[in-house]
Amino acid sequence: MSPKISHHLLLCATPKKPSCCNPNEGLKSWERLKNILKELKLESPHRPEGIVLRSKVDCLRICQEGPILLIWPDGIWYHNISPERIDVIVKNHIIKGNPIKKWVLKETPLAINKF
Fold first, then answer.
1. Strand partners, 9
2. How far apart are CA 59 and CA 56, in angstroms?
3. Least packed by Cβ within 10 Å: which of 50, 60, 77, 114?
4. 112 domain-assigned
5. What is the rounded distance in angstroms from the CA atom of residue 114 to the CA atom of residue 100?
6. Are 93 and 100 in contact (CB under 8 A)?
């Protein structure tokens, strides 16, 4: 049986055609994201709230104010991501459920059909 999934974090961290951010900044943010998820044991399949998945992506097609971090299923798109912002977002948004509104570029929440 697959573990329950809490969130999936997609970070455009190392674009091949860097139009939204400096790839070095993106890579630093990616490294911090990997480390904090491990430090806080958010990748544990035994976490009652569910596992937090992460994916490094080439491009989220925003092409401005990057690096961009997209959090599913919430549909929150954060801009100008840095290692410092990663810490704040993970601790407040992922763990406490409080998105950091001043860093939100856009919102596209996933509509879940309830039958």
1. 54, 71
2. 9
3. 114
4. no
5. 28
6. yes
- Nearest to 64, CA basis, from 105, 32, 8, 23: 105
Q: Is residue 114 part of a domain?
A: no
Sequence-distant (≥ 6) Cβ neighbours of residue 37 within 8 angstroms: 43, 52, 54, 90
Residue tagged 């999934």 (tokens): 5
Question: Is 113 within a domain?
Answer: no
Question: Rounded to two decimals, what is the model's pTM?
Answer: 0.88
Strand-strand pairing, 104-107 and 76-78: antiparallel
Burial of 25 (0-12, 13-18, 19+ CB in 10 A): middle
Any idea what the CATH number is for the domain that residue 40 is in? 3.40.30.10
Contact by Cβ (8 Å): 76, 97:
no
Looking at residue 94, its amino acid is I
Confidence of residue 77 (pLDDT cuts 50, 70, 90): very high
Give the residue, 91 or 108, on which the prediction is more confident: 91
Q: What is the Cα gyration radius of the chain? A: 14
Q: Which domain holds residue 48?
A: 5-107
